[in-house]
């Protein structure tokens, strides 16, 4: 039933003879008219004809697939296709296999993913979807629609089996690209935003585990904004003072000391910057400044010095925002 | 070696070329005149593209100076032709793509429910008409309220159409912007929508498109603008705590990268549209001055296409969406004039909440509410 590239026009097919094609209305002075191909005009003429009579038959599936392949954003074709599938009680697993192909082909189209949600809401079989998403992320590891679909699927069906391997999955995604912010976000969602799973009842232990996890990743690649955002996320979420990270953060906030690599006792709680990492690290200086500002008193001056070094030397593009922090902090001192 | 960004405010701006305003206007006018078959995916969002074209011309101050009245009246009647009503209220459809011809040159307007209004398109239609200084006597206001009501879902979000379609922060923003322009919020349950917005907040400080999604510049703009539009009408108390506000500002500022442009998500490449979404978000939070404007202008300069129009990134093809949003970003955050930035970079002032020229926003607020309201 797939439309061939050289398939004849619907107007030339005897089995469509009984449908009255309805050409599109266009104002004599149209704005942004599209110079449609003959194939698109032909298919949409028959689609308007079908919609007029309200026909919902197997050939409507062929017609709407044809249109979708020409214009995957044609949401009326998607909507009518869905209605027809429901009316025909068509096998939705067949439809999902077709969608496997179309989703990867039209990865950035809203409608492809919306249609998929409607189908899975109907089949109530989310299991196989995880594998499909994992495969489709191989095409584009940061595709927003694909990740959103996964997050929706997990939250909507929310059954234990579905969640069981999710932390592992997030791990694997991070292993293939430690700078993939979508994977970091997903980890946060799985660990902190979606209830408590068996084995994770001790939340303090979970926070300790996540802190150890993110510290190791920062140690591997200190200039990774995603990892620092994750660190801040854990601390904010668990109301842990940033100052508890002082020991960890400090070595990242200064130029590498000449004898750093000679230290033979490694503090496992506080892994040092990996060899060859660019130091000092902007995110660490920023973090340290936040600690000092929060301490207040004399520490405010330490914070302003750090912001000053970011503004003038290490992160000059954000000069204005660091100077804003300096003014803001000094004002509070005076008050 | 310390990690230092090569771009800086301290560098001279001598190299900043002109903003090719004529070329960008030409790009938009050409798109209004017609699109090639390869852009058929615009079919179901044509009116939104018209808004990006007209909005660009408006920011370049060309609408009233360089287009003639007949031309503008033709545009106005095309936009009104997209107003459609049905059992779920009335609004605007994206174009005639689902409208058959009744007789030669006459639309069949009583066609079907599959030709219903679309909430995002409706927001852009109102702005198009305000840009063209229409008096809005043809607006079906009660139908529009009914339409908004039938789009709102139990979770507080809005579907793109009464009978379905996706729903996320984009549609919440459109519903709020429409209500704000109408100065009538009876079509939306504001509390429930606020609940939805809050559920989209991410640990990074931005907002995702839907609950549990990754922070993203466009939807962060939608969240912040929605809250502030509602605040403007209801004078609610502060809806972000001091620490939330600080986190949001931090994340937005972090998104301006070494290219001078803004990325939409942590670690992604800069894109001209996020210069607006992130830049305008900072303006809404009252800290627009934190944007590095000279770096921003250099990024937009590098996205200019040599035959007109602005692309998402250097070397890409231009389109009206990125052209408009880049111009809107420049309007809010022009490069400083004490250096040698050509005056072409100074555009008409923008209203960051409605995302249109200030004069146009004032016109909308004056003419869209029901008379005597």
From TrEMBL, chain A:
GO cellular component: CAAX-protein geranylgeranyltransferase complex; protein farnesyltransferase complex
Species this chain originates from: Serpula lacrymans var. lacrymans (strain S7.3) (Dry rot fungus)
Family assignment from sequence similarity: Belongs to the protein prenyltransferase subunit alpha family.
Gene3D superfamilies documented for this protein: Protein prenylyltransferase
Cofactor: Mg(2+)
Lineage: Eukaryota, Fungi, Dikarya, Basidiomycota, Agaricomycotina
GO molecular function: CAAX-protein geranylgeranyltransferase activity; protein farnesyltransferase activity
One Pfam family this sequence matches: PPTA
Name of protein: Protein farnesyltransferase/geranylgeranyltransferase type-1 subunit alpha
Superkingdom of this protein's organism: Eukaryota
Entry keyword annotation includes Metal-binding: no
EC numbers for this chain: 2.5.1.58, 2.5.1.59
UniProt entry keywords in alphabetical sequence: Magnesium, Prenyltransferase, Repeat, Transferase
Alphabetized InterPro entries for the sequence: Prenyl_trans_a (IPR002088)
Transferase listed as a keyword: yes
Automatic annotation (TrEMBL), chain B:
Annotated InterPro entries: PGGT1B-like (IPR045089), Prenyltrans (IPR001330), Terpenoid_cyclase/PrenylTrfase (IPR008930)
One Pfam family matching this protein: Prenyltrans
Source organism superkingdom: Eukaryota
GO annotation, cellular component aspect: CAAX-protein geranylgeranyltransferase complex
Coiled coil: none
Domain named Prenyltransferase alpha-alpha toroid: residues: 20-355
Keyword Repeat on entry: yes
Molecular function terms from GO: CAAX-protein geranylgeranyltransferase activity; metal ion binding
Cofactor(s) listed in the protein's UniProt record: Zn(2+)
Keyword annotations of the record: Metal-binding, Prenyltransferase, Repeat, Transferase, Zinc
Record family assignment: Belongs to the protein prenyltransferase subunit beta family.
Record protein name field: Prenyltransferase alpha-alpha toroid domain-containing protein
Species this chain originates from: Serpula lacrymans var. lacrymans (strain S7.3)
């Amino acid at each position: 039933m797939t439309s061939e590239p050289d398939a004849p026009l619907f107007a030339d097919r005897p089995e469509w003879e009984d449908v009255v094609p309805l050409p599109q209305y266009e104002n004599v002075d149209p704005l942004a008219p599209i110079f449609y191909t003959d194939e698109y005009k032909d298919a949409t003429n028959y689609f308007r004809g079908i919609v007029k009579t309200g026909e919902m038959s197997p050939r409507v599936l062929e017609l709407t697939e044809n249109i979708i392949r020409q214009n995957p954003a044609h949401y009326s074709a998607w909507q009518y296709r869905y209605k027809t599938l429901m009316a025909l009680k068509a096998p939705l697993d067949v439809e999902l296999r077709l969608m496997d192909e179309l989703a990867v082909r039209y990865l950035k189209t809203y409608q492809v993913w919306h249609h998929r949600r409607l189908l899975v809401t109907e089949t109530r079989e989310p299991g196989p979807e995880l594998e499909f998403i994992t495969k489709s992320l191989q095409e584009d590891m940061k595709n927003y629609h694909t990740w959103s679909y996964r997050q929706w699927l997990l939250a909507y069906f929310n059954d234990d089996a579905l969640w069981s391997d999710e932390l592992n999955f997030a791990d694997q995604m991070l292993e293939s690209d430690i700078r993939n912010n979508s994977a970091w976000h997903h980890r946060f969602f799985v660990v902190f935003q979606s209830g408590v799973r068996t084995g994770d009842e001790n939340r303090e232990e979970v926070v300790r585990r996540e802190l150890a996890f993110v510290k190791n990743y920062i140690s591997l690649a200190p200039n990774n904004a995603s990892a620092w955002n994750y660190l801040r996320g854990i601390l904010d979420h668990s109301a842990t003072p940033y100052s508890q990270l002082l020991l960890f953060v400090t070595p990242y906030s200064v130029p590498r000391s000449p004898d750093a690599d000679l230290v033979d006792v490694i503090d496992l709680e506080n892994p040092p910057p990996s060899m060859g990492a660019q130091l000092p690290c902007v995110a660490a200086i920023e973090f340290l400044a936040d600690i000092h500002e929060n301490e207040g008193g004399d520490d405010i001056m330490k914070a302003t010095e750090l912001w000053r070094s970011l503004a003038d030397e290490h992160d000059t593009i954000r000069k204005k925002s660091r100077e804003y922090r300096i003014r803001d902090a000094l004002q509070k001192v005076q008050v | 070696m310390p990690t230092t960004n090569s771009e800086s405010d301290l560098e001279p701006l001598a190299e900043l070329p002109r903003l090719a305003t004529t070329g960008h206007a030409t790009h938009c006018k050409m798109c209004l005149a017609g699109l090639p078959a390869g852009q058929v995916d615009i079919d179901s969002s044509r009116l939104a593209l018209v808004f990006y074209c007209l909005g660009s011309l408006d920011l370049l101050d060309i609408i009233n100076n360089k287009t003639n009245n007949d031309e503008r009246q033709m545009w106005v009647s095309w936009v009104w032709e997209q107003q459609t009503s049905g059992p779920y209220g009335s609004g605007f459809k994206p174009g005639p793509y689902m409208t058959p011809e009744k007789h030669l040159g006459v639309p069949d307007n009583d066609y079907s429910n599959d030709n219903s209004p679309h909430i995002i398109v409706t927001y852009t239609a109102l702005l198009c008409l305000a840009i063209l200084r229409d008096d809005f006597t043809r607006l079906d206001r009660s139908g529009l309220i009914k339409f908004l009501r039938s789009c709102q879902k139990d979770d507080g979000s809005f579907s793109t159409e009464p009978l379905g379609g996706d729903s996320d922060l984009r549609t919440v923003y459109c519903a709020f912007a429409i209500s704000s322009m109408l100065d009538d919020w009876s079509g939306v349950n504001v509390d429930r929508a606020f609940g939805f917005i809050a559920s989209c907040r991410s640990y990074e400080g931005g907002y995702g498109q839907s609950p549990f999604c990754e922070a993203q510049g466009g939807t962060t703009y939608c969240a912040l603008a929605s809250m502030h539009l509602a605040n403007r009408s209801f004078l609610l108390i502060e809806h972000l705590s001091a620490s939330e506000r600080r986190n949001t500002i931090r994340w937005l500022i972090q998104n301006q990268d070494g290219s001078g442009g803004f990325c939409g998500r942590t670690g992604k490449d800069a894109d001209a549209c996020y210069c607006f979404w992130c830049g305008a978000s900072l303006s809404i939070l009252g800290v627009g001055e934190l944007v590095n404007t000279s770096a921003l202008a250099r990024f937009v300069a590098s996205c200019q296409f040599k035959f007109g129009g602005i692309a998402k990134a250097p070397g890409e093809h231009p389109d009206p969406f990125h052209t408009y949003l880049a111009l809107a970003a420049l309007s809010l955050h022009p490069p400083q004039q004490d250096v040698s930035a050509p005056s072409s970079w100074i555009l008409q002032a923008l209203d960051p909440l409605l995302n249109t020229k200030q004069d146009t926003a004032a016109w909308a607020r004056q003419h869209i509410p029901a008379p005597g309201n």
